[in-house]
User: Fold this.
Amino acid sequence: MLILLICCCIGLLNGIQIDNQFVEQPKDIETILGSTIILRCRTQPIHPSQVTWCKNDFCTLGKTRDLPFYPRYEIIGDANQGEHHFQIENVSLDDIGMYQCQIRAGPKRAGSMSRKAKLTILRNSLILLCFQMFCFVFN
Assistant:
């Protein structure tokens, strides 16, 4: 506890902003295979290159908003308004995991991590619809 207090005081003396820079943090989400989801993250206005996303504590998904090595992933929203939402298209079982929004440290700003948000894939259920003598199965 004493070490944390000392680190905070040193940071403040050096002009580093330590307060929570997140306006909105991602929340757990449940979805089905093939859907598109958005994990929300809003920060105080900072340069878009200072915000990235982490999956399962792997924080190098990319430094640009289009994430070229992950074609189904993209950081969307108005960066000038602090919007750095993480979109996954065509959700697959590979996407299951924990996600975090990360603010990289800057010259006058300490880095910060959002809360972790869990992405869960729900199993598709069959719907049985019967009308008179006919039954239809929907997946």
User: Anything to note?
Assistant: The longest helix spans residues 2-13. The CA atoms of residues 52 and 102 lie 5 Å apart. Residues 20-123 form a domain with the Immunoglobulin-like fold (CATH 2.60.40.10). The chain has a mean pLDDT of 81.
